[in-house]
């Protein structure tokens, strides 16, 4: 994929609010102005560093200008972005596509966020509720009429072992307690 196509793909991500601040954009423009071969002329650099225009407008104009200039200019923009905002460079949508060649592969960063968005308190509450329901179900289950030590020993057996194995173990323990 060419750098111009990548830049077109990343344009919305880069121009969305609070992705790039003014200082980073100014550093990128200055680097593009000073790099050899010179990507931006002095007049173009001043235009894209004009504080009177909004950051969103300046950045959009810069990206469109670089796309018109060609692939080499877009490549230098990506190099400047990597130098001045490495974390943002690594989070670019086109970089994630390059990192995951299999489109059916799960995006682990997104999956991790989706699994962890509730926090540990939510997990503990759900686990406690499930354990409580298992205990209530076991204690008042009409199939198991076992009393004494067997019930205390295998209190959490529905979670660990199956019903048939549990019944056999409980009958054995009941017989052992009678003897």
Summarize the structure in short.
The chain is mainly α. The protein has helices spanning 3-15, 22-34, 42-48, 55-69, 71-84, 86-90, 93-99, 108-116, 120-139, 149-153, 157-160, 163-178. The longest helix has 20 residues, at 120-139.
Defining key terms:
Death Domain, Fas, single chain, 179 residues, mainly alpha
Explain what you see.
Associates with BCL10 by CARD-CARD interaction. Keywords: Disulfide bond, Endoplasmic reticulum, Membrane, Mitochondrion, Transmembrane, Transmembrane helix. Residues 38-96 form the CARD domain. Its main location: endoplasmic reticulum. It is found in: Endoplasmic reticulum membrane; Mitochondrion membrane. By secondary structure, this protein is mainly α. The protein has a domain at 3-97: Death Domain, Fas, CATH 1.10.533.10. The protein is built from 12 helices and no strands. Helix 2 (22-34) runs antiparallel to helix 3, helix 2 (22-34) packs across helix 5 and helix 4 packs across helix 5. It is rod-shaped and about 100 Å long. The N and C termini lie far apart (79 Å). The model has no long low-confidence stretch (mean pLDDT 77).
Estimate what percentage of residues fall within beta strands. under 5%
Distance between the termini: 79 Å
What is the radius of gyration? 31 Å
- Main β-sheet: number of strands, strand sense, barrel status? none
Supply the CATH architecture of one domain.
Answer: Orthogonal Bundle
Helicity, as a percent range = over 70%
What name does CATH use for the topology of one domain? Death Domain, Fas
What form results from the Cα inertia axes?
rod-shaped
Structural class: mainly alpha
Task: Output the CATH homologous superfamily of one domain.
Answer: Death Domain, Fas
Q: Helix and strand succession?
A: HHHHHHHHHHHH
């Amino acid at each position: 994929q060419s750098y111009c196509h990548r830049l077109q793909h990343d344009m919305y991500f880069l121009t969305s609010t609070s992705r790039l601040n003014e200082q980073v954009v100014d550093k990128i423009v200055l680097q593009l102005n000073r790099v050899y071969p010179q990507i931006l002329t002095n007049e173009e650099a001043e235009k894209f560093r004009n504080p009177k225009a909004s950051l969103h407008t300046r950045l959009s104009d810069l990206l469109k200008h670089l796309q018109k200039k060609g692939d080499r200019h877009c490549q230098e923009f990506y190099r400047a972005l990597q130098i001045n905002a490495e974390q943002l460079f690594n989070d670019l949508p086109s970089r994630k596509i390059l990192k995951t060649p299999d489109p059916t592969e799960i995006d682990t960063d997104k999956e991790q966020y989706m699994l962890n968005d509730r926090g540990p308190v939510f997990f503990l509450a759900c686990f406690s509720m499930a354990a409580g329901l298992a205990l209530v179900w076991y204690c008042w289950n009409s199939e198991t009429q076992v009393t004494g030590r067997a019930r205390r020993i295998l209190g959490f057996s529905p979670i660990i072992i199956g019903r048939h194995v549990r019944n056999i173990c409980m009958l054995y323990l009941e017989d052992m307690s009678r003897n």
